Amino acid sequence: MAEAAAGRGLWRDAGRRLRANRGARVALALLGSVTLLAVLAPAASPWAFDSLDWRHLAEPPGLTAAHWFGTDRLGRDLFVRTLHGVRLSLLISLLASAISVGIGLAWGALAGFAGGRTEEAMMRFVDVLYSLPYLFIVIILSTVLGRGSIAVLLLAIAAVGWLTTARIVHGQTLQLKRREFIEAARATGVPTVGILVRHVIPNLAGTVVVYATLTVPQMILFESFLSFLGLGVQEPYASLGNLINAGAQEMESAPWMLLVPAAFLVLLLGCLNLLGDGLRDALDPREH
Amino acid sequence: MPSIPVNTDVPAMSASQPVLTLEGLTVRFATPGGALTAVEGLSLSVAPGECLGVVGESGAGKSQAFLAVMGLLAANGRASGSARFAGTELIGLGSAALDAVRGARIGMVFQDPMSSLTPHLTVGDQIAEVMMRHLHLPRAAARGRALELLERVQLTDPARRMRQYPHELSGGMRQRAGIAIALACGPQLLIADEPTTALDVTVQAQILALLAGLKRERSMAMVLITHDMGVVAGVADRVAVMRAGRLVEAAAVAGILKSPRDPYTRELVRVAAPPVRGADVAAAVPGSTALAVSGLSVEFPVSRGWPRSPARLTALRGVGFELGAGESLGVVGESGGGKSTLARAVLALLSPSAGEVVWMGRELLSLGSAELRRLRGELQIVFQDPLGSLDPRMTVSEIVGEPLLVHRPGLSPPDRMETIAAMLRRVDLGAELSGRYPHELSGGQCQRVGIARAMILEPRLLVCDEPLSALDGPTQREILALLEGLRRDSKMSLLFISHDLAVVRRLCERVLVLYLGTMMELARSESLYSRPRHPYACELLDAVPVADPDVQPARLREARPGEPPSPLAPPSGCVYRSRCPHALAICAERVPEWEESGGGDRVACHRWRELV
């Protein structure tokens, strides 16, 4: 009996079901290898992300060439730059997602569970922030704190991202609060924090995890948008966003400059979506 | 299967051509786990003007058989065999041809009238639509007929109901509207599938009386599908008993109820028989008062529109009673009577607008939240919805063990697991279930988990809020037996809320009758069930169907009409007076006293002395 019970549990079961999901397994493996590549390869490569190779300007890719993925107009190695971009984009988007989902989850769950005036005040605050144009916030933040800093970029993206999470979580919590098992927990004498941690949040987990995995690609896109406007990552640093933007301008003469970073972006987004679906199924015991 | 006793002793009507004849009707469902047979080789017939009761427990296939007749099976269902209606073979008929039959010549009444009515059309339009479509009546004529029909089904204030939407009606009113739709085209056959299962016992009696009257006056054939022998006793001429998709026996109603041949039928009749007081209910320990409730009132703000109007709904008014240590008190009444609100207020799960709840000398509502939480280990509750009261993301052992985590955090994990295992054994749940999730369990198993969670801290008060009403017959009996056993062993007090008077009688020493949140009568079980003093208690007891064909038709004829008034606008004086057959002028003027009526019983009625 102890064995049977010890062998199960929401997270343990979720892990098992995730491993049984072929799509999620492939996505996880691909994500892992791309991340590993992004972390290790630039160090191993003879080229730095900002070193110029005057002998190979705008060279197309080729396995036998000096630069596998080719070079850009300034002769910078695209392989190294793309992996640098992947690294930066992943870092920014994962951190920003974690921050915005974390704040949004806590904020929405607290507001929904507290009810009354607290709830009104918390959610009206979200509404007010929503109604401010977010570019305006980002511009103000970067003027005050300095343009192009990654910390500012993170702060800006997260400041906007948590609002939607908070609203989604708030709505879900309101639904959960009416369920009888929450009342059962209150009748047992579980303190409010315990109810939130043991009953509300695990039941929100499915929704939140899926939303979070969809937030990561959104954040990657948002970052590239800001970089394009000159508010994000600046040259010579590379992110997937500014690489794609640079590549788009050379689309006709040097298509690989667009295709290489775009292929990595598509790969990342596809894997994250597959993983999100897998996690959603894994976190819902009723699915199996 | 042994040969099936078919109706041999039925009066003249069998001479005429049957309206509906089923021969070897079989219904199968294709499921991922293989084909599932719901009905197998069912042969039955219904004569004109006859009411056939089809009785069986859930899963007997009784509904599926008649859904197949109507061509209403789920997409993965297939019917074979024969179902002839007035000379037409219905099995295999195309849906266009079926549409000419169903709704027009066969009417159907469903268990849940809310789901069979369209939410966005008024009641009048829905009834008129049926006649415009099948009888090609012009709109005005159809609406005129609809009004007549609503009058016939005794819907109060029919002209107003015509303009109302389904959600504005009570369950009983909706069922009347559903019957009006089924009757709209003057069908030859009416199929009623558990038409009263979702209704209060008083409304059930009204609806059954209506069906019995309609059958007499229209000489319409009727099929009444139910799990309750008491329901068929007053209405049916002949009864067919089904079990696991097969016909067990079919005979005249008196034959089935008085001399059932098959052991299974005998069992069904036995459990439907009017209950006697269980001999093993321990007499109340004449001990100390454990729980004392006084002057308890609960109001809910009902905000409508914007700006919000400050309307208040009074769910409980001035409820007070005492519960001794080890005693069990039943709380009965119709839905909307405030029973569940009382359960929650007693446990301080909601804050009352007035009154006190004193548990072992301590006023619960004035306690600090930490202190109240500590005390909750002694006060536990079992909920109505077995699945909904369990966290879908927790396993059985996590659910049952949660109270231990909260109240006995010092317990080591092995000790905790041992306590959980012992508790699961007490509620007869196998150890192999401890790792399951609630959705992997049956309704009865879920309720056992709920009971185990409530009992694991050995509470001194257990509140049960309709713990049986979501379960089917055999499961109800098992859970009831379990509760009886736990109570015998544990000396706890029990507050048992139920709309089922038979269950309360078996389990409780005293009974509190609530109506519109007000106490009508509080009496020892033996005096309430043998000599109810309050007219409302009489009405409740008279409405319980009795599985006796000699008595039940007469009881149905005496079913009292009337709907409970809106709790937003209760009558002045005695709240029951608008339905009371004995009401006088004084009842509207003054609220009756909560008077001693002998032996510690109390009653709130101006006239109880004359009426006894």
**CATH architecture grouping of chain A:** Orthogonal Bundle
* Estimated helix fraction of chain A: over 70%
User: What is the global morphology of chain A?
Assistant: flat
Regions of chain B with pLDDT < 50 over 5+ consecutive residues?
Answer: 1-15, 276-281
Q: Which CATH first-tier class of chain A would you pick?
A: Mainly Alpha
The secondary structure category of chain B is: alpha/beta
Give the overall form of chain B.
Answer: globular
Series of H and E elements of chain A = HHHHHHHHHHH
For CATH, the homologous superfamily of the domain at 289-378 and 459-526 in chain B is named as: P-loop containing nucleotide triphosphate hydrolases
Number of domains of chain A: 1
The residue-averaged pLDDT of chain B reads 87
Structural class of chain A: mainly alpha
Q: What's the story with the biggest beta sheet of chain B?
A: 8 strands, mixed
Summed up, what is this model?
With 288 residues, chain A is mostly helical. Chain A has helices spanning 2-6, 10-20, 22-44, 78-114, 116-131, 134-145, 150-177, 180-188, 192-228, 240-249, 256-282.
